[in-house]
Amino acid sequence: MRLELEGKSVLVMAGSQGIGLASALGFHAEGARVTICARGREALEAAAAAMPGCLAIVADASEPADIDRVVTQALAHFGSVDILVNNSGGPPAGLFDNLSDDDWEAAVNLTLMSAVRATRAVLPSMRARQWGRIINISSYGVKQPIAGLTLSNSVRLAVLGWAKTLAAQVAPDNILVNTVCPGWTRTDRVRSLLEKQAKDTGSQAADLAVAITAQVPLGRMGEADEIANLVVFLGSQAASYITGTAIQVDGGAVQGYA
User: Fold this and answer.
1) What three-state secondary structure class fits 230?
2) How far apart are CA 44 and CA 205, in angstroms?
3) CB 3.0 to 4.6 Å from 38: which of 16, 121, 141, 248, for a disulfide?
């Protein structure tokens, strides 16, 4: 299969670690020109060092001005943004009774509005070339709610609705919009979620991990590069007739048909 990614310009938001980094590495290995951004300079520089020619920009995806700056620099450096990977750290865990208006607004700003703003910024470049890919990193919680993740379960569904609607609007410009929904994956975010839950419940993070994997038919958590494989495919020419989808990569954890 030919992915035909050589020379394509890819922007991966929050691309210094976890699934974002794995996706950036995957695109780079296929010959794409990669831009990554993240808040932490040290992790960002380490990630860029693994991808010669990568453009790395310190930025906060929750800040509109930072998103505009990242896209402007990527366009100036590479001449286009052909593929956008909307990725961000997920909202914190919490039960409904413990969440304030500020918590909800922060979750919407980080998870939904970062994707909206980045997409708005890159669409003119994609329309000019009549080719584009917008890939959102979400969670299998959009298909089967995850206990304790009230904000994530709620706001990520808003991203899904936005992406599905957008897909129809930009399809005439040969721009494809899809969402990848990872299950439990060995990332720093999952480790921190398990540690917080263990602290709140007086249990051990290792025991919680065992309980989680017991509910996954494949019997284990996923690895970041297993999620990235789908991200890279959806960004390629090989995925030219796939748009408006939300695909989980979860080891079979979701038990519904949709």
Assistant:
1) helix
2) 28
3) 16
What topology does CATH give the domain 9-185+223-249? Rossmann fold (3.40.50)
Residue 4: helix, strand or coil by DSSP? coil
Q: Classify residue 51 by burial, with Cβ atoms within 10 Å: 0-12, 13-18, 19+.
A: buried
Summarize pLDDT for 108-130 with one digit per residue, the tens: 999 999 999 999 999 999 999 99
- Among residues 151, 65, 61, 73, the alpha carbon closest in space to that of 113 is found at 61
- How high is the mean pLDDT of the chain? 94
> What's the token pair of residue 4?
């035909």
**What is the token pair recorded at 11?**
């922007």
pLDDT tens-digit readout, 152-207: 999 999 999 999 999 999 999 999 999 999 998 988 777 877 787 778 778 887 87
Are residues 146 and 215 in contact, defined by beta-carbon separation less than 8 angstroms?
no
Cβ atoms within 10 Å of 44's Cβ, excluding its own: 23
Reported as a pLDDT band with limits 50, 70 and 90, residue 239 is very high
Residues near 97 by Cβ (< 8 Å), separated by ≥ 6? none
Under 8 Å between Cβ of 163 and 177: yes
